[in-house]
């Protein structure tokens, strides 16, 4: 059998979103050259063992792509809820010929998700190439996106409680850690945001939409040079200014995500006063003094969170959004910290004894943590409280992350010992 001729195609990254709003960057059809990915002559994606579906099968699964089946829409096209002949419920993304994306974006999505598989990444089940039709079939995530639960709640939805927010943050961190440190070749996600975190049963978080993902630098390279692409409010300042993309660019975006979970505010909001449209800029004045951290709390939390853990999560977010990318923590450390934070469940009875006050806007007033706590309770390393208070702000933040990392390691070891019994 004669081997099929092959050609090379410049895979390009453009913006994909399930919902468009004034906060998103709307990209033109100018495409950004990326890595070379071979595409076969018949148009099938490379190195993919994913099953293919016929257009007729998918039309049947989605009730002929009726509008009532649409669960989202973005630059690629509408996303439909469907059910395959196997009874599996799926999400079907259909390329819109009048949209911002085309074949190249279709192939990069298939290529990336063919290579990347992890419990905290959305699973690509298959695809369809038939005539000029291009469709992607994903597992269905029944709870929608994190953005829905934070910013687009419907009357039948309950606000996310603190424990659930930490579970979601931990899941997203594990997905990003896989991309950075466990994939065969490191991947920079480049589009971490609440709209791209999909939620399954139990609020199991999965990263989705890999249209902007890029392979990380190799050999002696320190960064990947690329056109600046992403979403306003999440983009790291050094990347926005120079186009030099690193893993630390994703860390900044993760810090913004943590601030979203903490505050319930959008990463970008044009209704805020000039100069504070971005969440980081709005929160920065309250981040200067540790005693003001509780002012950041989302009113929807109604004060139901452990204040000491809350402050440490704020410290972690602050480390992630530092202007100096070298000062940001690594994903492994973030995962360890969040493994501990997610394990510290809110105790309503204990919270009442903390005497946390409430302000007129529903946010929590800053009340100093009890001073009768031991130094180990505060920093986890036996350092005297007075000594800690004498440290400058940067050192406090570094200690907070080191503390969380230590707690995370201890907690994980304890779990491993218990599971081995």
TrEMBL record:
Q: Where would you find this protein in the cell?
A: Cell membrane
What SUPFAM superfamilies is this protein classified in? Protein kinase-like (PK-like)
Q: Where is this region: Disordered?
A: 349-375
PROSITE patterns attached here? PROTEIN_KINASE_DOM (PS50011), PROTEIN_KINASE_ST (PS00108)
Q: How does it sit in the membrane?
A: Lipid-anchor
Q: Tell me which UniProt keywords the record has, alphabetically.
A: Cell membrane, Kinase, Lipoprotein, Membrane, Serine/threonine-protein kinase, Transferase
InterPro entries membership = Kinase-like_dom_sf (IPR011009), Prot_kinase_dom (IPR000719), Ser-Thr/Tyr_kinase_cat_dom (IPR001245), Ser/Thr_kinase_AS (IPR008271)
- Domain Protein kinase stretches: 65-341
Could you tell me which Gene3D superfamilies the record lists for this protein? Phosphorylase Kinase, domain 1, Transferase(Phosphotransferase) domain 1
For this entry, the protein name equals Protein kinase domain-containing protein
- Protein species of origin: Datura stramonium (Jimsonweed)
């Amino acid at each position: 059998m004669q081997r099929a001729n092959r050609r090379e195609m410049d895979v390009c990254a453009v913006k994909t979103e399930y919902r468009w709003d004034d906060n998103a960057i709307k990209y033109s059809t100018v495409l950004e050259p990326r890595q070379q990915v071979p595409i076969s002559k018949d148009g099938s994606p490379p190195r993919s063992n994913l099953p293919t579906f016929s257009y007729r099968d998918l039309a049947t699964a989605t009730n002929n792509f009726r509008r009532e089946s649409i669960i989202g829409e973005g630059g690629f096209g509408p996303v439909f809820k469907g059910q395959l002949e196997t009874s599996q419920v799926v999400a079907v993304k259909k390329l819109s010929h009048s949209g911002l994306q085309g074949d190249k974006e279709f192939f990069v999505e298939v290529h990336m998700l063919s290579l990347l598989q992890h419990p905290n990444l959305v699973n690509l089940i298959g695809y369809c190439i038939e005539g000029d039709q291009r469709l992607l079939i994903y597992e269905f995530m029944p709870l929608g996106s994190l953005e829905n639960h934070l910013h687009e709640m419907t009357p039948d939805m309950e606000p996310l409680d603190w424990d659930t927010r930490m579970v979601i943050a931990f899941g997203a961190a594990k997905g990003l850690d896989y991309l950075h440190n466990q994939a065969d070749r490191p991947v920079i996600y480049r589009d971490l945001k609440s709209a791209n975190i999909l939620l399954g049963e139990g609020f199991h978080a999965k990263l989705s939409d890999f249209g902007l993902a890029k392979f990380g630098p190799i050999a002696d390279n320190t960064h990947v040079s690329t056109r600046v692409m992403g979403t306003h409010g999440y983009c790291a300042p050094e990347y926005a200014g120079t186009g030099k993309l690193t893993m630390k660019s994703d860390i900044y975006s993760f810090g913004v995500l943590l601030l979203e979970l903490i505050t319930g505010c959008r990463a970008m909001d044009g209704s805020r006063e000039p100069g504070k449209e971005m969440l980081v800029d709005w929160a920065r004045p309250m981040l200067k003094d540790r005693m003001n951290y509780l002012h950041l709390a989302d009113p929807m939390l109604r004060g139901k969170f452990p204040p000491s853990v809350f402050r440490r999560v704020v410290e972690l977010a602050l480390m992630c959004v530092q202007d100096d990318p070298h000062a940001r923590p690594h994903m492994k450390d973030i995962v360890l910290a969040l493994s501990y934070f997610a394990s510290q469940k809110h105790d309503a009875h204990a919270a009442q004894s903390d005497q946390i006050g409430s302000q007129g806007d529903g946010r929590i007033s800053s009340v100093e943590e009890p001073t009768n706590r031991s130094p180990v309770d505060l920093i986890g390393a036996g350092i005297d409280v007075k000594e800690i208070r004498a440290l400058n702000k940067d050192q406090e933040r570094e200690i907070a992350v080191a503390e969380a990392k230590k707690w995370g390691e201890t907690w994980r070891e304890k779990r491993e010992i218990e599971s081995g019994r």
